[in-house]
Structures are given as structure tokens and as C-alpha cells.
Amino acid sequence: MSRKLIIISTLLILSFLFVACSAQPEPTQETNEQVVAIVNGKEIKSDPQIEQHVLDNLIRMEVFRQEAEFKGYIVTEEEVNARIDRMANEFGSQRDLESALEANDMTMEMLRDSIADEMLINKYISQELPQPTVAEEEVRTLYEQYRAMQIIDQPFEDIRERLENEIRQQMLEQEIGVIIERLMDESSIEILI
Predict the structure, then answer these.
(1) What is the structure's pLDDT at 32?
(2) Quick one: signal sequence residues (predicted)?
(3) In CATH, what is the architecture of 3-132?
(4) What pLDDT is stored for residue 13 in this prediction?
């Protein structure tokens, strides 16, 4: 699987998780979580004060996750554990990772769920979506736009691959958006707040 594809889907998943976590009030001794939506029979729980755009993102994520499961993609506990081990190493230790989670009002369970969803969607994307083809003209057009805005000053050949990847990423994100919108239209969604 392409490293860029992993990065795209990781950012997508983590941005949903970050938005969901950051928009909720500070946790208290008692949680006020309740069912805020039902997507194809699956309950989504959150604080009832959740902002609408955050709820929309959680719903989009759920329909995409359900589609990946429907297509037969699975993520094992071993895969999730391996990813958490890599993250702990990047943080220095398991304890440092747990401290970072706590500082961001997250739990290990939330991280595990997020990683499992990310990996599931990565598998779906890598198998179901063809790698977009980028025309030379598109790359040159982007290059000229960036030069006109004085964003870049390198020769075309030095940054051609980076620009091509940027265009490919945008195309892939658009395709993902189309799929999610189709899934939203086909899904039974009940918002309870």
C-alpha cells in the first residue's frame, strides 16, 4: 500500500477523532454520553452538546466504516497492537503515549477504536479505489499557479513528483467524498439530538 495513501487516510481518521474530542466539553466524573445518532442500526454515542459539524463527521465516518466491513475487510487485534507499539516507540514509551492521550482527554480504548477504523478504511481504499492518473498538463498548470503566487521557486523537474502527488491526493480525497456522500444517501440515519 502506498505510504501517501496511508497518510491521507490517517489524517482523515485522526481529524475526525480530533474534531470529535476537541468539540466536547471537559470530561467530568460523570459522563453525559448518550446516543446522538443511529446509522444503519448502529448507535453513535457522544455528549448531547456535540456540535452539528462534529456529529456530521462522526456519521460520515461510520457509514464509511460500515461499507468497509460490508465489503469484508477486517482488522485484527494484532494489527492494532502492532500500530500502538509503533506509536509508543515514537513517543518514547507506552507510558509517554498514555500521558499524551490523557493530556488530550483521550483513552487507550478511543485510540484503539480510531486505529482499527483507520486501518479498516485504509484496506478499503487501497483495494477499492484505483490510483488516480495525473496528466502532465495538470502538473504543469499547478506548477505555474504556484509560481505566479510565489509559493515555489524550484525548477519544475525538482518538484514535479511532489506536485503530482499533491494532485493525486486531491483526486483521491474527492473520490472518497463522492463515496461517502453516496453511502450517506443509501444509509438509514436518525439524528436524535
Answers:
(1) 75
(2) 1-23
(3) Orthogonal Bundle (1.10)
(4) 52
**SS3 state at 9:** helix
CA–CA gap between residue 97 and residue 77 (Å, rounded): 18
- As a whole number of angstroms, the distance between CA 97 and CA 91 comes to 6
Dihedral angle computed from the Cα positions of residues 110, 114, 117 and 121, in that order, rounded to the nearest 10 degrees? 170
Cα angle 139, 144, 145; round to 5: 95
Kindly list the domain boundaries of the chain, sorted by start residue.
3-132
pLDDT at 135: 95
Are 110 and 119 a contacting pair, CB within 8 Å? no
Query: Tens of pLDDT along 82-112?
Result: 999 999 999 899 999 999 899 988 899 989 9
Run of H or E including 15 = helix 3-22
Q: Quick one: angle between helices 136-148 and 156-186, nearest 10?
A: 110
Positive or negative CA dihedral for 130, 131, 135, 140?
positive
Instruction: Specify the pTM.
Output: 0.72
What size, in residues, is the chain? 193
20: Cβ contacts below 8 Å, ≥ 6 apart: 46, 50, 54, 57, 58
Strand (E) or helix (H) holding 103: helix 94-103
